[in-house]
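MODEL INPUT / OUTPUT PAIR
PAIR INDEX: 1
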Amino acid sequence: MARISDISIMLFPWGAKNPSVHEIVDAAKLAEELGFYSVTLPTHMTMPPSWLFRTFPNRDVLDAMVVVPAIAAATSSIKIGFNSVLLPLLPPYQWAKYLATLDVMSGGRLIVGAAMGWWEEDFAAVGVERKRRGRLFDEQLEVITRLWTQEKTTFEGQFYQLNDMPLEPKPIQKPYPAIWIGGGVKAIGRAARYGESILCFWPDEEQAQSLWIPKLRDEGSKWGTQPKLASFTFAYVAEDEQDFQSNLPKLREGVAFEDPSVDPTRVTISGVPQRCAQRINALMQAGVAHFVVEFQFHGLESVSFGMRQMERFARDVAPLL
């Protein structure tokens, strides 16, 4: 049975209307008050000229690595984290130190959403070759988890080398904070080895049952783990059918990021409250264990718009779960 605590909120350090850190922190505080599981932010260096972003009147991107500590300081119980940190963009020791410190600062509330990254501008900004991101990502995960669990770490990889290197403080959470691996089917092996969950784009019920769950089970058996399936998706709680139809173009543009033929009514949590609840319950029955939802159409709408949607979800959808 689904609950509001099975749902996390994604907030954005960018927008068609520039958000302030104060606004984002207020949204996180509201999410905590309403009972959502976590709030997460993306960590992109830049904004690409494609997809939804082509309509933005600005190119501003706040640094999520600054914003999330502000959220940690302003909240007390909600989980906090990233969706996702792009590990290939910075050295693994820097990630391990920063994330361990954030886990300590938040009292053990950190979720480490981690991904390879996809748009070229992020890699160009820091001088990293995008074509190497998969191999970099694998070494990063190994180095970071070793630094969190070993007194001193020695590692000799293709890209990173450490010799008898300590890291203090260690994370509060043991053996280390939950890692949610963002990616597609090819990332399931990494999620099974290092992560608590695979966080993927909007699987429908058939995909969850026939593709994701069997592969997660198979890969988990290799490592003695039980990785979960988490879905990242757009959400919109409509007042009525007319309201939903007026916002359907934004949903369609959002899911077209992966495949223009994808039906947004099948993969988003959207519509009148009863339909939103039905979608969540159906996906959970198919094997989705957790949802990371965004109420701002990836930044097309303002922080205040997203906050009103969070309140409507808690008031009108949560009781139906």
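PAIR INDEX: 2
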Amino acid sequence: MQLSREELLRAYRSMCTIRQFEERVHAEFATGDIPGFVHLYAGEEASAVGVCMNLTERDSIASTHRGHGHCIAKGCDVAGMMAEIYGRKSGLCAGKGGSMHIADLDRGMLGANGIVGGGAPLACGAALTAKTLKTGAVAVAFGGDGASNQGTTAEAMNLASVWRLPVVFVLEDNGYAESTASAWSIGGDPLVRAEGFGIPGVRVDGHDFFAVHAAAGEAIARARDGGGPGFLHLKLARYFGHFEGDGMTYRAPDEVAKLRAERDCLKLFRRRVGEAQLLDDAALDAIEAEVAAEIEDATRRAKAAPMPSPADLLTDVYVSY
């Protein structure tokens, strides 16, 4: 499917926003002002954007502990995200979730998740709701190579297959489950695992936005039309450590630099649209400048926002029916 100029600009803006957001959080975390843990998504932008551009507002996604990119790709407010990461009352979750539990149900973002493999069952729940109520919605479960080894993921895939749920499982294989290489820790082929549950799957270069967008579009359309679950195995790479402070001694000294130079999804996108004369450098440079100003404003507002008060501690704990 040929993307329009407006769609291409939107895709680049979303990927650029994720990259600049993560790089800013990386810099701000080093100051010691951000509480808790932070797991950055930089380098994986083509996955979140390529998948989520095929979704509508009624669709849902379940994320991972590395959830900032998924949030932005699903349309969550950047200022609210930054405030949440700073633990401020104006954050998406009123400062109570932080980076690893950020969520926005109004946008169909079911939440980042500190439990490895915890998102797949949630996506099945959303998909079952959509099927039962006949809303036509689809759910997407993002998970890493570590999550692919969890029983929750296997059980969710089996359930999705048995009930023919409108859900797509996206394995973002960045090569390392924390510091353990997926080549060593995953037995067998992830596509064969999916096929074992009767779920059709495809392996895609996760650095290539256009390949991800096309593959995700097919799987999501099939799920939406009643064809049951799908599976995407995206091979990609993260630029930062598993968490902020990770020395990445398990990676070759020049590994990240080589990836940034040769496989960066933003550079690949710019090259493709430039060679095809779909977008020029001036338009893309303007987007980068606009995004930089947006991230700067979001950071300034987050730092100035109030912290939750002691009176807020026990709110949002239980729901009254």
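PAIR 2 NOTE: Residues 5-303 form a domain with the Rossmann fold fold (CATH 3.40.50.970).
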